[in-house]
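INFO worker-7 received task bundle
INFO bundle size: 2
INFO processing item 0
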Amino acid sequence: MRVAPLSAVILGFACRQPVAPAAAVRDSGASYFPGSLLFAAFNSGYGYFWWTFPLHRGGTDAGVIAASGSGGQWLFVIPSLDLVVAIAAQSGAGLDLLYDGLLPALR
């Protein structure tokens, strides 16, 4: 039986079965390269298909794991807060929303 990747994730979640080894998930969210100039003001890094950002603006940790889409779409994963946030917007201000709105509201 062939199962599409998204379906495999949904089925794995529903059945409480891992869909990837824990080490692969952990390693995919690590920062291996300096981030792009586009996100330089946020002290970004880049791993395996994921951006990393500090939990606090200007910090040096990689506490925020993020995916960036077209036109302001963002997915933020913040393991220390047990939080996942999806943003669908028409502006690219997702990082400003994260640092100036969302994270301060959670503190």
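INFO item 0 finished
INFO processing item 1
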Amino acid sequence: MNLTKRGYFKPGNKLGGRKPLDLDFKALLLEQSPQALQTIIEIMNNPKASNRERLEASKIIIERVYGKPIIPIVDVNKYSGIQLTIKNLRESLNIYECENLKGGN
């Protein structure tokens, strides 16, 4: 393999990234996915499981259904710590560009 002594890929690696899964292996995983989901649900509903385990199981299910949450972006210099969504950031950038075109700050 094209790795350094530390296990990193050498510069200029042209191996093409991760190899696709073998179709038989993928079929086996697909066959086991209902059982995996049931295990996650059982952990989430198990009162003997730790809060961390139950929370992680809940998080896995929610992220699979709704997607991962938007990560807030903070611009401390301009907005004094107000959390911005992507929409707000785009609007702010448009205002900034307009101010610069007009010669403002």
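INFO item 1 finished
INFO post-check item 1: The two ends are 53 Å apart (CA to CA).
INFO post-check item 1: Residues 23-66 form one domain.
INFO worker-7 idle
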